[in-house]
Amino acid sequence: MLIYILKRLLSLGLSLVAASVVIFLAIEVMPGDAAQIMLGINASPDAVEALRQELGLNLSIYARYLSWVGGLLSGDFGVSYTYRVPVTEMIGDRVWLSFPMAIYALVLSTLIAFPIGIIAAAKRGSWADWLVMGGTQLGVAIPNFWFAMLAVQLLAIKYHWFSAGGFPGWENPFLAIRALTLPAFVLALPQASILARVMRSSLLDTLSEDFMRTARAKGNTRRQALVKHALRNAMIPVLTILGLQFSFLLAGAIIVEKIFFLPGIGSLIFTAISQRDLIVVESVVMLLVFAVILVTFVVDITYAVVDPRLRRKAR
Amino acid sequence: MSILSISGLNLTIGTVPILRDVSLSARAGEILAVIGESGSGKSMTAYCVNQLLPRGAVATGQVRFDGQDMLALDERALCTLRGADIGMVFQEPMTALNPVQTIGAQVAETVLIHTGKSKAEALRIARDTLNRCGLPAAQFPLDKYPHELSGGQRQRVVIAMAIALRPKLLIADEPTTALDVTTQAQILDLLKGLVKQDNMAMMLISHDLGVVADVADHIAIMRKGEVVESGPTAQIFAEMNHPYTRALFEASNHIPDREAPAVDAPILSVKNLVRDYLLPRKSLFGPAPKFRAVNGVSFELKRGESLGLVGESGCGKSTLTRAILGLEAIQGGEIVINGHRIGAGQFVPRELRRQMQVVFQDPYGSFNPRHKVARLVTEPFHLLSDPPSGAARKAAIDKALTEVGMHPDDADKFIHEFSGGQRQRIAIARALIIEPELIILDEAVSALDVSIRAQILDLLADLSDRLNLSYLFISHDLSVVRAITDRVLVMKSGEFVEVGDTGRVFTDPQHPYTRALIEAAPILEITP
Q1: Considering only CB atoms, which chain B residues are within 8 Å of A213?
Q2: Strand, coil or helix: what is B373?
Q3: Which phi and psi (to 5°) does residue B352 adopt?
Q4: CB distance from A307 to chain B under 8 Å?
């Protein structure tokens, strides 16, 4: 087990190095001169050149890569070309919104998906199964911006249960959670639908395995056999999807952020791209990659906890 | 007194009748063998006893177990009987255990479900039971997982789960079909011993008369959902009143007529062949350790000859086959096919590959279900530089199908429209279509019922006579190898321990391993 974890850690490190090179190169080949954009089209060539010097854009590609990575490691992400404030500060505020919101959405999605997925599988072909299959189909199909507006209309404007938008900060955790509930729910709905369907099909596969018959022959009731023998075996595909979904929830929330006026990572990167604020783009993308790789690592470790066959011989 | 008595049992699934008027009984301390080919209803009869029937199944008649009418009991009462009074052992030990739980937990679960005992006490009983089943604590601690055990060891765990609470009836559904001969003999021995020690009744379900001949007290022979003959074992074998019993018996001893003599010209010769596998690295640096699966073996296969290759799982016979077929590069020695030499690191070229074809064990898994037979049998055409098309292609398909006893019209059907035996004929047609000289039969008849197996063996004998084919016949089933091969190679741990004429090897085995294999194999005496 220890060797397995060490191996995963090694792969985590290598993935990070590879990702940083790819991100750096991708930004490098993008058209547009940051200095030119910051100063505007009418700036004198001398001024642009001076700024290029100041930003280090004239250094060799290796030197710039190393200084960027060195900065990342020491927590100095550089200074935004557009706003002239440290990138760390810009990201810092938004991370405290985006990460909790992603986790919140993931928890909601799991809480919805697991029970309905399990019920649908356990009562295959029943009305409950039909309802779950139909409902999740709808959940995947509904565009989230439309659902978001609907939710705002009904739950925020009409009943005033939740706030319609904006984020008050974490000084009052209750208000913060209240502000994040609707967006998290809107984010969670399609994810929960997918997850429930994966849970159902994975569980159905497991229920038809030979060892489930063995479990019944031992005297387990249908329900006992499901809980004791099927669930854990059905978890592997579900974990894979969960890992992928977290990554998506972190970076893919831009539309929902816009609708709820939330200053999140998604809208930050969108603005940064349109303003050619490459240093911000690089840093945010790197941060997201780090989060995704970290989640993958956690998922890999969970696999091994769930399935002993994946553990390298520990003895 | 009978622990189990079934009388007038009928079963339908949906609208399909599965069992008709089945009557059987089993007594404590005795083994009742239920014999039949696939689809005879033997397993369904067993599932009627513990009521683990598929959805839509309706059973009528009487199933009395220990004084209770099993068909009348509710699910709750059935759950208290299953595992406690009725144990069950299944065919596939590889999949019958939960892969994510330790063997100790799985055996203890039987105890925990039915008794109020503490977990520690249940684990102690699990330990004792595993010991009884031949899995001592030293090599098999309770925290082992199923994937760390071999097939035979897993089957012992399944048996331990079934007998942990000393049930009155043990149902064993083809418990040794998936195992090697020596393991099969050990498992049968274990079951037989347990029946005597615990004074259980046992219902042993099998397709193989040979397996049950030595162990069963009573035999019931089933066919198409009905019991055609039943009685004490000795009487059944002595009388064989029903023609089906006799047919079954003859089919399992079937020896096809073969006449074409082997010519003394090798079509395939293998010299000092070595095949290594890389194992997972132990340390981060340094070379990965190797496992030598085939360790310098040599043999010759003559034109028109049928050569057997026997050995237990893991002995290297499949690895050797893959190397000969050119699917994997060899690490040492050479393979000579029709005079062309292939050395270490080289792959078998296409022109040589077309002279060899292979037929695999599983007639269900070895075809793409979405292709029609015509496309399936013409697959080897990709080995030809100029494959026939149009009328020539049609003629080739017709010829290959006719050759194996199928109809040319079958070319337009899908594979699911055929039975297991027919599929294996189509697999042979697929091998024949590019007119190879050598066919490798990798357990090609092992999954078939005895009567179908006899037909396929006849077909193979006939084809080799007519087309002068050579066979490399790989099997763990010694009776089949004995029936169809001229010479036999006995393989163990990557090496040949004995090579010789089939008749000589079976009547006068020299190597102790060959002797052990032959002794373990169930052999039916031909008396009538």
Answers
A1: 52, 90, 96
A2: helix
A3: -80, -35
A4: yes
**Spatial CB neighbours of B487, under 8 Å, sequence gap ≥ 6:** B305, B307, B308, B499, B500, B501, B502
Rounded-to-integer distance, Cα A272 and Cα A142, Å = 29
- Read off the pLDDT of each residue in A172-193 and give the average, rounded to a whole number: 90
Round to whole Å and give the CA distance between B74 and B51: 10
**pLDDT tens digits, residue range B228-243?**
999 999 898 888 888 8
CB of A215 within 8 Å of a chain B CB? The answer is yes
Locus of tokens 């074809």: B357
A126 touches chain B (CB under 8 A): no
Phi, psi of B499, rounded to the nearest 5 degrees: -135, 135
Q: What is the pLDDT of residues A152-168, one digit of tens each?
A: 888 888 888 887 778 88
Kindly state the percentage of chain B with pLDDT values over 90: 35
Residue B389, min C-alpha distance to chain A (Å): 42
Hey, is the C-beta of A137 within 8 angstroms of any chain B C-beta?
no
As annotated, the residues of chain A forming the CATH 1.10.3720.10 domain(s) are 101-266
A219, B113: Cβ pair inside 8 Å?
yes
Please determine, for residue B525, whether its predicted confidence score (pLDDT) is greater than 60. no
The model's pLDDT over A19-56, given as tens digits with 9 standing for 90+, comes to: 999 988 887 776 667 677 777 777 788 888 887 777 77
- Where is pLDDT greater, at B284 or B515? B515
CATH number of A101-266: 1.10.3720.10
Q: How does the average pLDDT of chain B come out, rounded?
A: 87
Task: Report CA-CA distances (Å) from A212 to A227, A260, A304, B205.
Answer: 11, 47, 22, 20
Q: Indicate the DSSP class of residue A218.
A: T
Give bridge partners of residue B171 from the DSSP assignment.
B88, B203
Which residue is listed with tokens 């309802």?
A131
Residues of B in contact with A207 (CB under 8 A): none
| Residues A152-175 as b or e (16 or more Cβ within 10 Å = b) | beebbeeeeebbbbebeeeeeeee
Cα-trace Rg, chain B = 25
Q: What pLDDT shows up at residue A313? A: 46
Beta bridge mates, B523: none
What is the predicted pLDDT for the residue at B113? 93
Quick one: pLDDT at residue B527? 43
Residue A113 to residue A236: CA distance in whole angstroms:
15
CA distance linking residue B321 with residue B528, whole number of Å:
39
Minimal Cα–Cα distance from B219 to chain A, Å? Answer: 24
Q: Does A1 touch chain B (CB under 8 A)?
A: no
Q: Where are the beta strands (DSSP E) in B90-139?
A: none
Paired with B13 in beta bridges are B16, B57
Do A233 and B99 count as a contact with CB atoms less than 8 A apart?
A: yes
- Would you list the DSSP string of A228-279? IIIHHHHHHHHHHHHHHHHHHHHHS-HHHHHHTT---HHHHHHHHHHTT-HH
A308 touches chain B (CB under 8 A): yes
B115-124 pLDDT, tens digit per residue, is 989 999 999 9
A225 in contact with B, Cβ within 8 Å: no
Work out the average pLDDT over B468-493.
Answer: 88
Position B292 scores a pLDDT of 85
Of A211, A214, A308, the CB nearest to B145: A308
- The count of other CB atoms within 10 Å of the CB of residue B331 is 17
Contacts of A312 in chain B (CB under 8 A): 280
Residue in chain B lying closest to A303 (CA): B100
